[in-house]
Amino acid sequence: LEAQGGTSLEREGVRPEDVSFLRQVDMRYVGQSYELTVPLPAEQLDASKIDSVLEQFHIEHDRAYGYSAPTEPVEFVNLRLTAIGKIAKPRLRELEGDNTDTAAAQKAVRS
Questions:
Q1: Following DSSP, what letter does each residue of 35-80 receive, concatenated?
Q2: Of the N and C termini of the chain, which has fewer Cβ atoms inside 10 Å?
Q3: Bridge partners (DSSP) listed for residue 19
Q4: What are 68-73's contacts with CB under 8 Å, separation 24+?
């Protein structure tokens, strides 16, 4: 997915060094119908990193809903990758005004 995202941005003129990725996972306790989105680390997920993601889910769940259940099973519902391309701020040309009196355009006055 990262290769596809990077290639898409490069086709749009974004330099490879200006590409970054946001990795996220939607998670929930088994049996629940709503998810929380938790950030994923950039590194490959091994057992210790999965434990860290699970811990972050429990923290986010407690923050959002006032409780967490660390002994309950958790589902990874969706994995998401967002490719972000940093581009230069566009330079806008300044428009010249003609200092026209706007009173003629006024239709009514509220009191």
A1: -EEEE--SS---HHHHHHHHHHHHHHHHHHHS---TTS-EEEEEEE
A2: C
A3: 85
A4: 69/29, 72/29, 72/30, 73/29, 73/30
The C-alpha atoms of residue 26 and residue 28 are separated, in whole angstroms, by: 7
Tens-digit pLDDT profile for the chain (111 aa)?
899 999 999 999 999 999 999 999 999 999 999 999 999 988 888 888 999 999 999 999 999 999 999 999 999 999 999 999 998 888 998 888 777 777 778 888 888
Instruction: Please give the Cα distance from 29 to 45 (Å, whole number).
Output: 20
Q: Beta-carbon neighbour count of residue 10 at 10 Å?
A: 14
Model pTM score:
0.71
User: What length does the chain have?
Assistant: 111
- Domain residue ranges in the chain: 2-87
Please enumerate in sequence order all residues whose Cβ is within 8 A of that of 68, keeping only pairs 6 or more positions apart, or say none: 58, 59, 61, 62
Tokens representing 43 are 């590194």
